[in-house]
């Protein structure tokens, strides 16, 4: 009996791993303990506990005051909006993951960045560009296809090298041979290692590929840009460990039918995570948009009822956007509530507040509320502009053209303060607006620009009474 017990205890326990996020456990469970997905935990082999013995230290630890921080100085990419999001540029040895939906422009942007960095490095190195090459590894296209896109966007540079590889060993061999200052991998889900079982893009393969590329980047002090795919839910494909391993995670967003693209830093070890970069994706490539406010405001000679301008904060950047509303009388018992670019449930709440708290009768009208330019407004500060636009459409009285309004509206009809009131006012003044309706704040609106009029309101009925004579 003793021998059987000893044999049973020495046998390694079976290991199980979630196919979605890579979470591991020693016993099978129906639901993943990390991502809460059902039916994704699979057996992967034996889970053996391992320990590592201490070895001789090759490089002793140094005092933090003695570390030279100039080795991690920012390297500008030549793309101003990307530098804004990254906090100043590329950091040597940093690994940056750029994720986004198919066709949003990830490959176009990184090819443009690779060409600009290669061009900056070869400016004084002659035509060979041997001093600081840039390596672009593509696993989704052939080198000829990348060359065609590079010619179209003007990204052909002597210091830029292309390699169409899907094998991780071959890609690392190219790195050993060229010793680039910048490595671009498009994409991390297309590379695979022969040392690991599974197809490219699987949890085990993505973990191995990412770990190998990160190790090479840190060892060579080489900046690495990785393209990542996203799932249909919008999250980054592969194990969650991938986002923890890299230094910067950027999300590339944009509507299919709009040329505007936004980059947000979800994680950034070297800079802020509340900056947003704006780009214009066209036939000739992708370009930075330093002042995107004009894209979301319509240009009309005469005032039009049902429109109101607001100022929203994308990260730390104030952007002007226009809200438009249209009401049409209906005989249906259930009026239609259609929205575009706004949260439909929040708009429905604002319509109820207008009717119950401000006497604006809307239960017999179909309502259509939308934004201009395809921009999505999710910030509560746009509530007051939506309310004013709907009331203006109801009374068919146009609001002043040089007026902006922002503030959060509660169920009691109160207008609550929002962050960055003075920053929004300064942006509106810079773009030629002269009046603002803002929520009353204990600290006030701050310094008001000369010639600019600010009216503070504490209730939505007060704002409507200020701008619209009748809302019944």
Note down, in words, how this protein is organized.
This protein is α/β, with parallel strands linked by helices and 472 residues long. The chain folds into three domains: 12-47; 73-290, Rossmann fold, CATH 3.40.50.300; 295-467, Ribosomal Protein S5, domain 2 (2-Layer Sandwich), CATH 3.30.230. Helices cover 26% and strands 25% of the residues. It contains eleven helices and 21 strands. It has helices at 2-10, 80-86, 106-121, 143-153, 168-178, 203-220, 241-245, 344-358, 383-395, 421-430, 460-467, and strands at residues 13-18, 24-25, 41-47, 95-100, 134-138, 160-164, 182-186, 223-228, 248-254, 260-268, 276-282, 285-288, 307-314, 317-329, 337-340, 365-371, 403-405, 408-409, 415-416, 435-439, 453-457. The strands form five sheets. The protein has a nine-stranded mixed sheet, sandwiched between helices. A hairpin with a 5-residue loop joins strand 9 (248-254) and strand 10 (260-268). Helix 8 (344-358) packs across helix 9 (383-395) and helix 9 crosses helix 11 (460-467). Residues 1-12 and 124-130 have low confidence and may be disordered. One of its GO terms (cellular component) is cytosol. It holds the Pfam family AAA_25. Belongs to the RecA family. RadA subfamily.
């Amino acid at each position: 009996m003793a021998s059987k017990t000893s044999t049973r205890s020495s046998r390694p326990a079976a290991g199980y791993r979630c196919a979605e996020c890579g979470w591991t456990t020693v016993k099978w469970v129906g639901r993943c303990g990390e991502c809460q997905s059902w039916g994704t935990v699979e057996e992967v082999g034996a889970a053996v506990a391992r320990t590592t013995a201490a070895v001789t230290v090759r490089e002793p630890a140094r005092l933090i005051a003695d570390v030279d921080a100039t080795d991690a100085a920012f390297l500008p990419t030549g793309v101003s909006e990307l530098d804004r999001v990254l906090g100043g540029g590329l950091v040597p040895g940093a690994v940056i993951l750029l994720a986004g939906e198919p066709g949003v422009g990830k490959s176009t942007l990184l090819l443009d960045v690779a060409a600009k960095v290669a061009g900056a490095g070869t400016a004084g190195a002659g035509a060979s560009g041997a001093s600081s090459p840039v390596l672009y590894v593509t696993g989704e296209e052939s080198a000829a296809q990348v060359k065609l896109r590079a010619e179209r966007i003007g990204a052909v540079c002597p210091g830029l090298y292309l390699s169409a590889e899907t094998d991780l060993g071959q890609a690392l061999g190219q790195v050993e041979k060229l010793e680039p200052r910048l490595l671009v991998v498009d994409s991390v889900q297309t590379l695979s290692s022969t040392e690991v079982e599974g197809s490219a893009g699987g949890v085990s393969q993505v973990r191995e590929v990412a770990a190998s590329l990160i190790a090479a980047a840190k060892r060579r002090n080489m900046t690495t840009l990785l393209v990542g795919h996203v799932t249909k839910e919008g999250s980054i494909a592969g194990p969650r460990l991938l986002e923890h391993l890299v230094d910067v995670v950027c999300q590339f967003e944009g509507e299919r039918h709009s040329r505007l693209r936004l980059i947000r830093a979800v994680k950034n070890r070297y800079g802020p995570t509340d900056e947003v970069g704006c780009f214009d994706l066209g036939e000739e490539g992708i370009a930075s948009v330093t002042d995107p406010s004009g894209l979301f405001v319509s240009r009309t000679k005469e005032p039009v009822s049902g429109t109101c301008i607001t100022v929203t904060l994308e990260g730390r950047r104030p952007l002007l956007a226009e809200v438009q509303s249209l009401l049409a009388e209906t005989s249906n018992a259930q009026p239609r509530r259609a929205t575009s670019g706004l949260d439909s449930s929040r708009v429905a709440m604002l319509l109820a507040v207008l009717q119950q708290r401000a006497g604006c009768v809307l239960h017999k009208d179909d309502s259509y509320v939308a934004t201009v330019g395809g921009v999505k407004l999710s910030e509560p500060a746009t509530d007051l502009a939506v309310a004013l636009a709907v009331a203006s459409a109801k009374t068919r009285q146009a609001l002043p053209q040089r007026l902006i309004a922002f503030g959060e509206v509660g169920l009691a009809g109160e207008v609550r303060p929002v962050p960055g009131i003075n920053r929004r006012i300064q942006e509106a003044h810079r773009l030629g607006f002269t009046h603002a309706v803002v929520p009353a704040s204990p600290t006030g609106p701050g310094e008001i620009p000369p010639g600019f009029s600010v009216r503070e309101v504490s209730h939505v009925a007060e704002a409507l009474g200020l701008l619209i004579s009748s809302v019944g």
